[in-house]
Amino acid sequence: MADVRLGTGPGRWILLATVLGSGVAMLDATVVNVALPALARDLGAGMAGLQWTVNAYTLTLAGFILLGGSLGDRFGRRRIFLIGVLWFAVASALCGLAPNIETLIVSRALQGVGGA
Fold first, then answer.
1. Residue from 64, 87, 12 nearest 79 by CA
2. What share of the chain is helix, strand, coil (3-state, %, to 5)?
3. 3-class SS of residue 7
4. What is the mean pLDDT of residues 31-54?
5. Can you tell me whether residue 2 is helix, strand or coil?
6. Which pairs with CB-CB distance under 8 Å and at least 24 residues apart come from 21-30?
7. How far apart are the first and last CA of the chain?
8. pLDDT computed for residue 6 by the predictor
9. Which of the ends of the chain has fewer CB neighbours closer than 10 A, N or C?
């Protein structure tokens, strides 16, 4: 792949896409905290389940982020970025459809993998 300079039109779009993607991944680490009371009520979750809802995402993101970078170097950054965005979107849909706290925790862990 040819080098793209950030001062060019394509370079700016690439920078914008990566900043937005990273921003969504980082936002998702904290935004669920607002919904914790509703999750406890709607899914009948206890304190441990709520904590794992937060931790599942954060731990998998931290655990897989170096692997994501390595895969990007090996198979192409654009390809791995697009796979990650698609993975994250599917996992987000699973979170929204989760019927219980256990499914939500697994879906949040999958989100962390996609975010990495």
1. 87
2. 85, 0, 15
3. coil
4. 93
5. coil
6. 21/81, 21/84, 21/85, 24/88, 24/115, 25/61, 25/88, 25/115, 25/116, 28/57, 28/92, 28/111, 28/115, 29/57, 29/58, 29/61
7. 22
8. 65
9. N
Tokens 């170097």 map to which residue?
Answer: 73
Q: What percent of the chain has pLDDT over 90?
A: 66
Integer Cα distance of 36 and 40 in angstroms? 6
Which of 27, 64, 34 lies closest to 50, judged by CA?
A: 34
Q: Where are the domains of the chain?
A: 21-115
- Alpha-carbon gap, residue 62 to 54, rounded angstroms: 13
Q: Does the model's pTM come out above 0.70? A: yes
Contact 79, 111 (CB under 8 A): no
Give the residue carrying structure tokens 């796979």. Answer: 83
